[in-house]
From TrEMBL:
Organism of provenance: Actibacterium atlanticum
Gene Ontology BP annotations: DNA-templated transcription
Name of the protein described by the UniProt record: LysR family transcriptional regulator
Cited Pfam families: HTH_1, LysR_substrate
PANTHER family in UniProt: HTH-TYPE TRANSCRIPTIONAL REGULATOR, TRANSCRIPTIONAL REGULATORY PROTEIN
UniProt xrefs under InterPro entries: LysR-type_TF_proteobact-type, LysR_HTH_N, LysR_subst-bd, WH-like_DNA-bd_sf, WH_DNA-bd_sf
Domain HTH lysR-type: 3-60
Family: Belongs to the LysR transcriptional regulatory family.
PROSITE patterns: HTH_LYSR
Length: 300
């Protein structure tokens, strides 16, 4: 008995999510049904595709080989569909984009909204997680990161640099007086990331600030900004965030200025998918322009 594409689609979901329940949610199937479909595929191929472990369903050697072939078939089907859609000249379908919290909250909504205005048939999903999005498991079609990955079958393209400075609310500075040097920071309460939840060392600003303890911490940039806005203390803030919260101002910009970068990461197999190529090009252009616009608004 030859396997059918529906069973292979179930196999892909289990392979990427490593669980029957996760695959079931994605496919809108009962986990038991997912399990039966996997078993049917294994019987059709006369091969064991998964090994059950405490971490979930792990691919066997046979499963790994099948995954490579099925993903190639998936890409061929997608490419054919995209070439057909491309005749209309507009992007369509759904694109899921992973991004760190600051970018997801303060840059991507307006950038993606403009792209969708020009492509009414396009839907964009923004996935913001306190960790790096796993493209190998197809959690998203592409991801924005601050540290380019050095492993996996991925393509990486630098988008733009961005700046961060110390910041506090005008209310806080009025209550505590002006700050004239970095050494004074030890006398103030600080805002930042939860130390054991910093998933990328480029997001750890404590050393640059010269502080050891963060009194008001969150794994979310949006929450940190609200701490600052309500006068909780002093912290590092992205320059591109400041125009959205007018009562926060930069402190000691000549004494402490950090620069980080955004990179766009995609699965290597997606290089031939024209829809994703066009979307990523529009996304990169949009992010570059938006970061520049927002940072210039802070300078003036």
């Amino acid at each position: 008995m030859d396997p059918n594409w529906d069973d292979l689609r179930v196999f892909l979901a289990v392979a990427r999510l490593e669980s029957l329940s996760g695959a079931g949610k994605q496919l809108k199937m009962d986990p038991a049904t997912v399990g039966r479909r996997v078993q049917r595929l294994e019987e059709a191929l006369d091969a064991s595709l998964f090994a059950k472990s405490p971490q979930g369903y792990a691919l066997t050697a046979e499963g790994e080989r099948l995954l490579t072939r099925v993903e190639q078939a998936e890409q061929a089907v997608t490419l054919g569909a995209e070439e057909t859609r491309g005749q209309a000249g507009q992007l369509s379908g759904t694109v899921r984009l992973g991004a760190p919290d600051g970018c997801a909250n303060y840059i991507l909504p307006q950038v993606c909204a403009r792209i969708c205005e020009e492509n009414p048939g396009l839907e964009v999903q923004i996935l913001s997680l306190p960790r790096v999005v796993n493209l190998s498991r197809r959690e998203a079609d592409m991801a924005i990161v601050v540290s380019p990955p050095d492993a996996g079958r991925l393509t990486v393209q630098k988008i733009t640099d961005y700046k961060l400075h110390l910041a506090a609310s005008r209310k806080y500075l009025k209550m505590h007086g002006p700050i004239e040097s970095l050494s004074e920071l030890r006398n103030h309460k600080t805002v930042g990331y939860i130390p054991d939840m910093v998933f990328d060392q480029k997001l750890d600003y404590s050393a640059a600030m010269g502080v050891e303890d963060v009194q008001f911490a969150s794994n979310s940039v949006a929450v940190q900004v609200n701490f600052l806005r309500h006068g909780a203390g002093i912290g590092m803030a992205h320059d591109f965030v400041l125009p959205a919260v007018r009562n926060i101002q930069r402190i000691l910009p000549d004494q402490l200025s950090l620069q980080r970068s955004f990179y766009l990461v995609r699965h290597a197999d997606d290089r031939r998918v024209e829809r994703l190529n066009r979307f990523s090009a529009a996304l990169i252009d949009g992010i570059r322009a938006e970061v520049l616009r927002l940072e210039e608004a802070v300078e003036t």
